[in-house]
Amino acid sequence: MSDRTGIFAGDDPFALARDWLAEAEAREVNDPNAIALATVDEGGMPNVRMVLLKEIEADAFVFYTNYSSAKAAELEQAGKAAFVAHWKSLRRQIRVRGTVEREEGPQADAYFASRSLKSRLGAWASHQSQPLASRASLMAEVARVTAKHGTNPPRPPFWGGFRLRPTEIEFWADGAFRLHDRFQWRKTAQGSWEVRRLSP
Ligand SMILES: Cc1cc2nc3c(=O)[nH]c(=O)nc-3n(C[C@H](O)[C@H](O)[C@H](O)COP(=O)(O)O)c2cc1C
Question: What does the record give as cofactor (predicted)?
Fold first, then answer.
């Protein structure tokens, strides 16, 4: 007998995550889809940075970045990552851990094409995570790629998505006197999900 009701109800953690994000989109001042993406480098040293969560699929979460960045090297070396979303307006968080793989097919092309022209050119111009001499040299690179690619730049080969397939998803909501509610979903060896309440 479960007491998982109200905002935690439902049999599909991805549908639940979509519902919570939709609520955050109506409430948060900026970037409701911002997530803190955690990786480890080859020495086991953790690293974390914000990225934007762009798609919640039937069994995965997708974000986009530069494949030459520090995060991409860490994602590809470990094949695993975690992220947390925290919505201050809702006083809720979602934590996710799992395996990662690239999304560099038509879906990445379509998302790239949906971005503004300046953002598409910016993706071409930025050698993300590499040392940069000055702001002026970045703007010179923007001018160079603008002259080269014009108004219809293709998706750069060094830019695309990562798909995180979770093995664990936790939904957390603030409770009075720090007696918060936590429900952790875990993928079983058979591929189904089991869910349990955790102590705050
Ligand atoms: C709210 C917010 C959203 C961001 N979204 C992205 C994103 O979707 N993709 C991305 O590559 N960087 C994004 N960034 C920049 C990253 O936090 C980071 O500076 C950059 O990706 C380089 O990280 P790395 O050196 O660990 O690879 C975002 C930053 C903030 C503050």
Answer: FMN
